[in-house]
Amino acid sequence: MTTTEIIKPIYYLGAKNSFLSEIRTIIDTIKKESGPVCDLFSGSGVVGNYLSQFYPVTTVDIQEYSKVISSALFKSNKVNTDKIIRDIEELHLNEVYQEIYECIRPLCEYERSSIDGISKDNVNAIVEIVESYPLASCLSTSNKNSIFNELQKECYLRLNEKGLDSPQFTTTLRYFGGVYFSYYQAFILDMILYLSDRSNDESKDFIKAIALSSASSVVNTVGKQFAQPIRPRNKDGSIKKNLNSLIGRDRNLDTIKIAISWIHKYKLNVNSTYTSNALRMDYQEALDTYGKNFSVVYADPPYTRDHYSRFYHVLETMSLRDEPVITTSTRHGIKELSRGFYREERHQSPFCIRSLAPKAFENLFKSTSSCNTPLVLSYSPHEEGDGTHPRVVSTKNLIELASTYYPSVEVIPVEGITHNKFNKKDLMLEERNIAEIFLKCTF
Ligand SMILES: C[S@@+](CC[C@H](N)C(=O)[O-])C[C@H]1O[C@@H](n2cnc3c(N)ncnc32)[C@H](O)[C@@H]1O
Q: What Pfam families would the database entry show (predicted)?
């Protein structure tokens, strides 16, 4: 199997899909004889999924969406995909689908004509949709002169009257419709999540992951992340010229077709004879609880001040299906809901906080070494001032910390051209022009 055939379940910043065979090569040279390989900070799940062909794997990440995706990948060959495809194709026959659609039909029709308006140079309506808050806050953002806001309220109240404004039915629609997806796309994503709730245990995470992968494909943002909704205006307030490529293209994507194409991709995923599992857990807790069992830990923590939870909060809310409180910010003295509609309770990783990161890395080295477990750490060694995004902890500090707990710390550039051996006395590293390194920590 080559790395190009490996499934990439979501667009993910810093996913390690280009380095999979290199990771395996290092693991093979250092892993203990028995126990699962741990993919710590598993993110999009690509590493754990790839490794699961060769070993039993345990993935660990603090985010629920990451657990859902890894768990789906591990089960992808065991679910009845024909039935899931049929259920998705026949969603419109479902009673709940029909009830919700009846409530939001006027909104979807208005939105449809607004999207079609882009090609007729009639763009004000779609710009208003993109710039408005979603249904979840439409009652508190009253604008009597806006047909669209009136429609939002009408549809929201209809959902409310029928008890359909609750997480098991319409989380994506109410929180992210209009902002990150079209209302109709968000509704279909909710319906796929609804199917997941009603499926048997084996298929639950699989169907949920299909909704997450589909959300990642259809989301209307630059770069397919969820940190920054589309801005349809230039700085001077004028409407941008390229609204078709900026907004129309994504919002015309057919979520059902995309979901089915994802099922086919998941079905072709690696077939493993090993039993692997996915955990949602803090790294420290996972190492304290299971560290001794792991044959090796591959760790890929965040290295910059960007919290992953900000980039993927929509996937997290879709996975948890709760009613998150939305963050606010103060602009010109007025408190407003955040434009990105971020959840207030969002994981703030110590690895992304300058004052906490050194301790977090130290705890990682300390925990794995005290379990006598070898560690491979991924790191992208750009430093502050070199024109790239600053790293929270420098490479030199990282090597120093690792060397406190491991007698041998070897720095391996990913291309594998130069291998520099490091020990406690020798902490120099020629790092410019190296895109990615591994720290191989052994005894
Ligand atoms: C660089 S990404 C991992 C990318 C992953 N290797 C891949 O290929 O997709 C870092 C991950 O660390 C997770 N994370 C951050 N802090 C954590 C913590 N305290 N415990 C567990 N996971 C954490 C984030 O949720 C994020 O998914």
A: MethyltransfD12
Residues 197 and 288 in one domain: no
Give the residues surrounding ligand 1 with Cβ less than 6 Å away. Answer: 12, 14-16, 41-44, 46-47, 61-63, 66, 282-283, 300-302, 308, 349, 351
Which atom, in ligand 1's list, is nearest to the CA of 360?
19
Considering only 199-203, 268-272, 369-373, 428-432, which range has the smallest mean pLDDT? 428-432
Choose the residue to mutate in 38, 62, 70 for probing ligand 1, maximizing ligand atoms within 8 Å of C-beta. Answer: 62
Atom 1 of ligand 1, residue of closest alpha carbon: 302
Domain with 159 in it = 81-254
Confidence of residue 415 (pLDDT cuts 50, 70, 90): low
Q: Tally the domains of the chain.
A: 2
Q: How far is CA 205 from CA 9, 82, 242, 423, in A?
A: 13, 16, 38, 44
Euclidean distance between CA atoms 243 and 340, whole angstroms? 19
Q: Which of 96-105, 197-206, 293-302, 386-395 has the lowest mean pLDDT?
A: 386-395
Q: Would you say residue 44 lies in a domain?
A: yes
User: 412 C-alpha vs ligand 1 centroid, how far in Å?
Assistant: 21
The CATH number covering residue 429 comes to 3.40.50.150
